[in-house]
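User: I'll paste a sequence; please echo it back and then give the predicted structure.

Assistant: Echoing your sequence first, then the prediction.
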Amino acid sequence: MSEQHQSFKARPMPNLNKPPKLPSVKSKPVTIPETPNLATKARASQHKPAGEDKVDTTFKAREISREVYAGPSMPAISSKPITIPETPNISTTNKPPTRVMEEGPTEFKARPVPRDAFAMGGQYGLPTTEAKEITIPETPQMSTRERADRWRELEAEKAAREAVESEARREAEAVKAAEDKEKLRRMREGLVHKARPVPGFYNKDATDDE
């Protein structure tokens, strides 16, 4: 199939010096203003009596009703009597006067202590208390020393445990290294090339007959 070559051809450029040709438009007639025909004028002409162009607009007030001069129609309110203040009736005023108010303040006089109060031992008289022993001062035992000793024991146990774990780890690594070395040796032995035996080219029975 042969290739088809299409040549590009540009359009000619229009002449810019000449004005473009526009379509001709017909001129409309001049608008003449008209008075609008409102509907209010038509309604006014309908209600307007025939033959009367002018309407009497003289203001004329209505007559005042005679009931206005008679006074208010509400019933008269009778005046209430003036309230006379009275002293409140408090319950304390009705109580009988006490002896203190009549005779005046009295002097306090304590009763005498019974003689058996000291001998009753506190059951009905004064309570008896035993003398306490004298307090002997003692040096306080601080817990900081116990904590320090306990911390040293824990550190020693931790060091011993880490030593045992490190020794076991070294032994396990040594055993693993020996196993890896043995596996490597066996793998290298398996990689050694061994030639197969040469097969017999002659029949054994034929050689024996000869």
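The chain has a mean pLDDT of 77. The helical segments are 39-47, 91-94, 99-103, 143-191, 204-209.
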